[in-house]
Amino acid sequence: MQKLIACLTILRPRHWIKNLFVLAPAVFARELFHPESAILAFKAFAGFCLTASAVYIINDIRDVEADRAHAEKKNRPLASGKLTVTEALVTMTVVLLAAVLLVSRMDPRYVAMIAAYFVMNLAYSFKLKEVVLLDVFIIAAGFMLRVLAGAVAIQVAVSSWIVLCTLFIALFLGFAKRRGEIVSTAGNTSERKVLTLYRVEFLDQMLTIAAAGAVISYALYTVAPRTVEYFGTDKLIYTTVFVVYGIFRYLYLIHYSSSTENPTNTVTTDKTILTVVLLWIAACVFFIYFA
291: how many CB neighbours lie within 10 A of its CB? Predict the structure, then answer.
């Protein structure tokens, strides 16, 4: 039983929340309640969850020694000794085979994108995560691929404003993660070489730019003529208040707590951010489907 729990833990199911970006095109294309499209969208979501889990295992295998020296990461299955490298490799193989079987008959463009996501993350794990700025942009590219893949999976067009907004949000979270890592290590950045190339002041500037870009691109999407015409309402602009408040709340946490080293934990444990996200989703669904 302990081995099974360790195998499930190394998949990092809590991080699957990131793959909800795959479902964004279905929501904004009014396809969420169409059974055929909904099934394809959730298959696309599951495909990214399985692929991402395989990448997490590869990361854990590569970083096992560094994780053992980290205050929190030392509790991961590999670093703590709950799983051996061989057992982790077997788990990764099973997960990858499941992903291949799941997506093999989907739109070839989706298959190409999820394959690109996997290869890109391999490159990130073995080299690119040590290249300043590019490390964060690779993370952002992964989120953009999620949105684009979600669109081609159900064969709908996706607004360029949504893709751009996704880029800025991902950059915002990525730079916030780097800042949190520097603060949490109190300047001792030996465990991550790339952290020696960042400074808190520089990251604060990047956060300001990314936050502004996310808010502006989302606001412009809600009032774009194509958006208003497609949804038949100009009320989507009112959902911008949730986006602005959520970003401001996250900025507050960045400067007044140490919780932003892990953006996933921040989003899922901070009650205010979680409430704002749920309200934003509810407002979007109301205005898009029922207004």
Answer: 13
